Amino acid sequence: MIDMSRFWPLLAVAITGCATVVPMQTASTLGAGQAEIGGQAGYATWCGTFPPSCARTPKDLQMPELRLNGRLGLGPGDVGVSLHGVLMSDRGWEAGGFTDLKVRLASAQLREGLRAIVSAGAGAGLGYLTMDRSVYANYNRYYVATDSALQFDLAIPLYLGLQTEVTEWAFSLRGLERRVSGDPYRLWVPSAGVSAAFFLRKPTRFGVQLSYEAPLALLGFGTFNAGVSVTRQFEL
């Protein structure tokens, strides 16, 4: 029997890391010849109860996650690239990138001025995080194998959007897989996430979102993340 208890501190921090996997976005897609660029800021308001997930130590202070993102329209779908980073004082920092493809599956007029949109995507990301060993001083019954790790992410999100001329609600359910380089058993960790977002549309889009992501085996040890975004759309 594999004893995973000695490695849970590393995995808990890496799996429920304070940066989101999938960037905030609408269910609608960009048309061919359209592009957008913008920025996002998110804050993990609560990250589980398993110590020491998401910086719940006496001296630790987490800063907001910052993300730069861009998307390019490809007809019925679009492709996006984003870069993110977050600093946790007394614990370390996390940075990485993510790229994804989103395709519109269906669109229907529900009534005058209200359209429903269903889309799906797939993406992959790479991240790096560092961890200060002193953070684990109060949890010395655990053994931390490393103080840094690479994260390899896969994500398959499904979106439902309710769109009017000036607004869009976007709800998302996503399956996630994360591989952590410091994991001695080289496990892929299946996770799930949900989100709800509200956007004010063109020409400059403002959005707010609340999301939750957690490993399937530890659904109570996930991350709530509140975020805001500003995006500008333009024609190529």
Number of strand elements: 11
Query: What general outline do the C-alpha atoms trace?
Result: globular
Helix content: under 10%
Strand order of the largest sheet: 1-3-4-5-6-7-8-9-10-11
Strand content: over 45%
Mean pLDDT: 79
Segments where pLDDT lies below 50 for 5+ residues? Answer: 1-16, 48-59, 134-146
Give helix and strand order, one letter per element, not per position. HEEEEEEEEEEE
Radius of gyration: 18 Å
Span between N and C termini? 57 Å
Helical stretch tally = 1
Instruction: Please outline the major beta sheet.
Output: 10 strands, antiparallel, barrel
Structural class: mainly beta
Short description:
The protein is mainly beta. Helix content is 3%, strand content 60%.
What does this structure look like?
The protein is mainly β and 236 residues long. It is 3% helix and 60% strand.
